[in-house]
Specification:
Blueprint lengths: L1 H20 L28 H14 L4 H10 L18 E2 L4 E4 L10 E4 L2 H9 L12 H12 L5 H14 L2 H8 L3 H7 L6 H7 L19
Antiparallel strand pairs: 1-2, 2-3
Helix pairs in contact: 2-3, 2-9, 3-4, 3-6, 6-7, 6-9, 7-8
Length: 225
């Protein structure tokens, strides 16, 4: 296979470069043998539909309201959700700049060690208003148990909420560059895996998913205005 050929060529090339540095060789003969060109096929990331996203959030509201902020931030802001090493574990209320309508992900939090800024869309702001972080922590005590139930009921794969966020963002705003900046990915990754996965009507439905219940509070962080 072409990839196997390139992999083996790379191993031999690395050894020959090492030999060249040790002056065991006068030159590297492998530079005259080019790698095989592989035309990469575009793949699609696994995502939720707008309908599935709405049902997920409605189920959480009815049965597990303490976990609503966690799921809302992963689904509507694309925060990496892993409960062992994910960005969500290091996300604090102070990272949500509500006056500026953004979430600041600093380099220490980011998986790729690069800071980024995520815009808080109107529906996410509504969820944070209905479930303020002072009353509903980002990581509730029973989150692992709740997530296991959600995975079983809605077939949530590891990063499906984040994939959904990116694909819906591209569909609504039609900007690969902006989606890459907010997701912390390269534009090539966004184009290869997320472009045209969703259409505009479905994206509008997704970004219109709103809470059915409300909690009286002056601020999404639960602080006095």
């Amino acid at each position: 296979a072409l990839k196997t050929y390139n992999n083996r060529r790379g191993i031999v090339s690395t050894f020959l470069k090492f030999a060249l540095q040790r002056y065991w060789l006068a030159d590297n003969p492998l530079v005259k043998i080019p790698p095989r060109r592989i035309r990469r096929r575009r793949s699609s990331a696994a995502t939720l539909t707008a309908e599935q996203g709405g049902k997920l959030m409605a189920c959480l509201e009815e049965n597990h309201p303490t976990a609503v902020p966690f799921f809302a931030l992963c689904l509507f802001a694309g925060i990496r959700p892993c409960l062992r090493t994910g960005e969500i574990l290091r996300l604090k209320p102070g990272h949500l700049k509500l006056a500026e309508n953004v979430i600041r992900i600093d380099g220490e939090m980011s998986k790729v060690r690069e800071p980024r800024t995520v815009t808080i869309q109107p529906n996410l702001a509504a969820w944070l208003q209905a479930y303020p972080l002072k009353k509903f922590p980002i990581i509730p005590a029973n989150l692992q148990h709740i997530r296991e139930k959600a995975v079983e009921k809605f077939s949530l794969s590891h990063d499906v909420m984040r994939h959904t966020f990116i694909s819906m963002h591209v569909a609504k705003f039609r900007s690969i560059g902006e989606a890459a900046l907010q997701a912390g990915n390269s534009e090539s990754i966004i184009r290869r895996h997320y472009l045209d996965l969703k259409d505009t009507p479905e994206a509008e439905e997704f970004w219109g998913i709103l809470p059915k219940h409300t909690t009286a509070t002056a601020s999404p962080l639960g602080e006095a205005a």
